[in-house]
Amino acid sequence: MRKRATAKEVAEAAGVSKWTVIRAFKPGASITDEAKRKIMEAAEKLNYSPNLLARSLSTNVTHQVAVLVDDFANPQKLPFLESLTERLQAEGLVAMLININNHFDHVHALLNADQRLVDAIILLGTAFRDETLNDRRLGPGMPPMFVLARDSQIEGVPAVVCDSEVGLRDIVDHLHERGYRRPGFMTGASALSTALKRRHHFAEFWRQKGVDHIVDISAERYSHEDGAESARRYLQETPASERVDVLMCENDILAIGAMETARSEFGLRVPDDIAVVGFDNYELGGTPAFGLTTYEQPCREMVDLIVEMITGKREGETISLPGKLVVRSST
């Protein structure tokens, strides 16, 4: 590994003290124009740049934000990550991505982020439980936490989320107007404190229209494979005359997997034999191959709000934003 030039070496080359070099790279610090000129010339010659991590030891601010993700099989995470990292970088912050998996659970991820002195933690679609945050290893000095793209029922942890109640009302109104009366709902991975609540609102709005029975179909993960397998299992076990006439999936990748299985393995026509609806407006769902009716989350607006909370420009509070119903050929 290359040896970094130090502030001491720059100071010797410029004929000043090490502390003068440090002040030269600190915005607003008192230093003469001549001293700063000498320091910058020496720094350029030595290819020196300030050590931000070392500076954070004195300021207690690292400008790093940990982003915890545990469902990479869901492609909708990519647009959120792209928008989030872009917005953080525009504020002079850097995202530290932490993959939650079988070898690195939520508690260990939080402890790891705390040890790296991050300024904040964003839970991006992670299934956090109250008992996780009550773990005795997590002390009161943990960085502030925020939930993005899911509801939060955890006290002191604000969330920015797409308003699922408004979204599911619009979806059910659309399906009811199209004449569907035997709805089913495919859920993804179970999540307690940061639940999506889409299944709850879907059932409630159908009850208001006189439809009390919702067929439940469960997938273990938010993935194409799990959506396909769950649809396969349901269609194999259910006679054609008893099947749902519309299947609402908790997100688009489940809907795409279910739609492919219904068409290719069971010869069903979409929407003639079974209509399919997703949620997120994932890019692939909008192609002619799928024409998936879905609900688009206001991704950029959600990211803007959570970054404003992290940077102190807005009070930390849970906020729900309306999205947009996108009607296509699958319904």
TrEMBL record:
Q: Which SMART domains match?
A: HTH_LACI (SM00354)
Which SUPFAM superfamilies does this entry report, sorted A to Z?
lambda repressor-like DNA-binding domains, Periplasmic binding protein-like I
Keyword annotations for this protein, in alphabetical order, are: DNA-binding, Plasmid, Transcription, Transcription regulation
Boundaries of each HTH lacI-type domain copy? Answer: 5-59
Checking InterPro entries in the record gives: HTH_LacI, LacI/GalR-like_sensor, Lambda_DNA-bd_dom_sf, Peripla_BP_I
Question: What is a single molecular function from GO for this protein?
Answer: DNA binding
Please identify the protein, giving its name as recorded.
LacI family DNA-binding transcriptional regulator
Q: What is the organism of origin for this protein?
A: Rhizobium indigoferae
Q: What is the lineage of its organism?
A: Bacteria, Pseudomonadati, Pseudomonadota, Alphaproteobacteria, Hyphomicrobiales
